[in-house]
Amino acid sequence: MKIVSGTYGGRPLKTLEGKTTRPTSDKVRGAMFNMIGPYFDGGRVLDLYAGSGGLSIEAVSRGMEQAVLVEKDRRAQGIIASNIQMTKESHKFQLLKMEAHQALSQLQGTFDLVFLDPPYAKEQIVADIEALAERDLLGEEVMVVCETDKAVDLPEEIACLGIWKEKIYGISKVTVYVR
After folding, report:
1. pLDDT class of 26 with cuts at 50, 70, 90
2. Can you tell me the distance from the alpha carbon of 155 to that of 146, in angstroms, rounded to the nearest whole number?
């Protein structure tokens, strides 16, 4: 796997061996960013289930200023730290080594882009978006990008957000919510 485009384009990404995380393939990541960007003029990104960190590193590569990555798995945290080092701009990244619900109670400020790819998708995505909205963590122009199995149907509206775009890539479905 590698960074698809932007400042870090072409640089390799390490991923975790085994089934504890499901890294988004380069192809799906590229298609996802073409759907939502493909480039950004600043902003903050939150990846609540960071895995290898590929999505938020790609977002910073494409113009986001800051990324907060949340990951509970110790081995995945090591991979993320290594991938952040590869950017040679580690000051743009903050890794929170904790469960997503713990991070949600500690986060401050607003985010312009949020990635949600939890292990048990539907109920968790609804709960996470509701918590983000309750805590005023969603910026005015926020995009919340949810990656699920293609069989998962998410609600039309969650909290203050509604579905803007939805596409299927192989076995994955990408759903984008906006205000």
Report:
1. confident
2. 12
Q: Which residues contact 84 (CB under 8 A, 6 or more apart)?
A: 53, 57, 69, 90, 93, 95
**Total number of domains constituting the chain:** 1
Residue 4 lies in a domain: no
**136: closest CA among 113, 107, 172?**
107
Average pLDDT over residues 137-166: 96
pTM attached to this predicted model: 0.94
Which stretches within the chain are classed as H helix? Answer: 26-36, 54-61, 74-87, 100-106, 121-134
Residue at 18 is within a domain: no
pLDDT beyond 80 at 23: no
Q: Determine the structural domain holding residue 153 and report its residue range.
A: 26-178
Of 142, 131, 134, 148, nearest in space to 164 by CA: 142
Q: Which CATH number covers residue 163? A: 3.40.50.150
